[in-house]
């Protein structure tokens, strides 16, 4: 298949959530003046299928992708939309496409989702392994983005800086403000493992210094974006979710400073993805 370099790519599978993701992707593509590629992958069964069965799989995939493409064109008239079907494993296909896309858009759960599982296996894989930013759209996303601020999580890491860059860019595109969230330890003045933790004021001052350093150049680069900073001793995921209630978008790095080597998706990112009320964009360290 041919996916255009620098396009926004949305994956569809016939689920309602995929159509919600398509609507979000179409609006984003129109806002950024980028083409939209709608893709649908289908897999052959493990047994040797008949030609009629294969034809049925292709026809079903074509119906899904055409439905999504029609929705995108209705949402954003004049948008440059292309639709493709591919015989491939969805997760592996999207990972390959992430090397060429501006970013990928997926629904949080697809048709194969298990009841009670809040993030589907394909979404989880692509978020962890994608090269470009990946946007995970929840089923309840509204047609028009909420009027609140874009939320970004900061921890001083390199990938958090990349998330901040994208968050400023998205806030400017959405003509809204930005909330930068940073958490620090509540264990001030205590002895942990023989080590005396710094007093609370020192931890707070270090947090202010970290956030100021991570946002400094970006404030100058995006002077029209108003920035509020939230410093908290709560758990990072909860602090981010508290600010995301009216947000049009949350932007996170796939791993933070506390991530274990070899762990491709950090605990904070996973926690936010599972329950965020709005789309979550995950940027990567590559």
From TrEMBL:
PANTHER family: STRESS RESPONSE PROTEIN NHAX (PTHR46268), UNIVERSAL STRESS PROTEIN RV2623 (PTHR46268:SF27). Keywords: ATP-binding, Nucleotide-binding. The lineage of its organism: Bacteria, Bacillati, Actinomycetota, Actinomycetes, Mycobacteriales. Residues 8-138, 150-284 form the UspA domain. It holds the Pfam family Usp. SUPFAM superfamilies: Adenine nucleotide alpha hydrolases-like. GO terms for molecular function: ATP binding. This is Universal stress protein.
């Amino acid at each position: 298949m041919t996916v255009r370099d620098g396009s926004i790519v949305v994956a569809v599978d016939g689920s309602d959530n995929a159509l919600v993701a398509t609507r979000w992707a179409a609006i984003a593509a129109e806002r950024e003046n980028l083409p939209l590629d709608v893709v649908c992958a289908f897999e052959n069964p493990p047994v040797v299928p008949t030609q009629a069965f294969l034809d049925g799989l292709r026809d079903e995939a074509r119906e899904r992708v055409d439905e999504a493409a029609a929705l995108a064109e209705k949402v954003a008239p004049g948008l440059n939309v292309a639709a493709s079907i591919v015989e491939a494993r969805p997760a592996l296909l999207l990972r390959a496409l992430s090397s060429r896309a501006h970013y990928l858009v997926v629904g949080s759960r697809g048709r194969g989702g298990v009841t009670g599982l809040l993030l589907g296996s394909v979404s989880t894989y692509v978020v962890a392994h994608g090269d470009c930013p990946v946007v995970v759209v929840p089923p309840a996303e509204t047609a028009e983005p909420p009027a609140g601020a874009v939320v970004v999580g900061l921890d001083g890491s390199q990938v958090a800086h990349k998330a901040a860059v994208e968050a400023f860019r998205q806030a400017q595109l959405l003509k809204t403000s930005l909330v930068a969230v940073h958490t620090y330890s509540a264990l001030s003045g205590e002895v942990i493992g023989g080590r005396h933790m710094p007093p609370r004021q020192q931890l707070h001052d270090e947090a202010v210094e970290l956030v100021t350093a991570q946002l400094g150049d970006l404030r100058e680069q995006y002077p029209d974006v108003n920035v509020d900073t939230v410093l908290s001793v709560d758990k990072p995921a909860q602090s981010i979710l508290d600010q995301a209630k009216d947000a049009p978008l949350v932007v996170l790095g796939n791993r933070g400073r506390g991530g274990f080597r070899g762990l491709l998706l950090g605990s904070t990112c996973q926690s936010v993805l599972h329950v965020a009320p709005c789309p979550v964009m995950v940027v990567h360290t590559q």
